[in-house]
Design brief:
Length: 188
C-alpha cells in the first residue's frame, strides 16, 4: 500500500474552551473541569493549535503516513474531541438493575471509591466494583446513573459494575440478573 504524503485531521475548539499543547501533552480546560492526556507514544504525529480565519482548531498531522499512522491521526483527533466534549458537556451512562427474585441493593462508597452490590442472587457477601477517577454515581430506584467529564473513566466504571454482576456457570438467557448499561449520552 502506498504512503500518503500528508494526513491531517482538525478539531474545532468551541468558545470557552482552552487547549494547550506542550510537545505531545494536550491539556483541555473548560467550564466543567480540566483534562490532560499524553500522546508521547505517537511517533511521527504532530499536534498543534492553529488559528485560521478567526477560528481556533487543534491540528493533528503526519507526513509520509502508512496505514497505521493514518489510523493514529484519526484516533488522537477523536480523543481530543472527546476531551473537549467532556469539559463542555460531560458524559452520562445509565445502567439498569435487573433481578427476578432477590431484590438487589446498590450502595456507593464515595470515600473509598467503591460500589457495593448487595443481595445479588441472594448472596450474603456483597459484590464490589471499583470507581475510576472522578465519576459521580447516583442510584434512583432500579437505575444507576454515572456522570463524569472523562469518557474513559465513566466507561471503565460502568464496565466494572457490569462485570461485578456477571453470572458464571448459568445460561445468561435464563438467569438475566445483573446491572446493565442501557444508555450512553452526552450530558447537557
Amino acid at each position: 500500500m502506498a504512503k500518503a504524503v500528508y494526513v491531517v485531521e482538525e478539531v474545532p475548539i468551541p468558545e470557552g474552551v482552552e487547549v494547550k499543547v506542550e510537545g505531545k501533552k494536550v491539556t483541555v480546560k473548560g467550564p466543567k473541569g480540566e483534562l490532560t492526556r499524553d500522546f508521547s507514544h505517537a511517533r511521527g504525529v504532530l499536534i498543534s493549535v492553529v488559528e485560521e480565519g478567526g477560528e481556533r482548531k487543534v491540528r493533528v498531522e503526519a507526513y509520509f503516513a502508512n496505514r497505521r499512522k493514518k489510523a493514529l491521526v484519526g484516533t488522537i483527533a477523536s480523543h481530543i474531541e472527546n476531551m473537549i466534549t467532556g469539559v463542555t458537556k460531560g458524559f452520562r451512562y445509565k445502567m439498569k438493575i435487573v433481578y427476578s427474585h432477590f431484590p438487589v441493593n446498590v450502595k456507593v462508597d464515595e470515600k473509598n471509591k467503591l460500589v457495593y452490590i448487595e443481595n445479588f442472587l441472594g448472596e450474603k457477601a456483597p459484590r464490589v466494583a471499583k470507581i475510576f477517577g472522578n465519576v459521580k454515581i447516583t442510584v434512583k430506584g432500579d437505575d444507576v446513573i454515572l456522570e463524569g467529564i472523562n469518557i474513559e473513566e465513566v466507561g471503565q466504571t460502568a464496565a466494572n459494575i457490569e462485570q461485578a454482576t456477571k453470572v458464571k456457570g448459568f445460561d445468561r438467557r435464563v438467569f438475566m440478573d445483573g446491572i446493565y448499561i442501557y444508555e450512553r449520552e452526552v450530558a447537557e
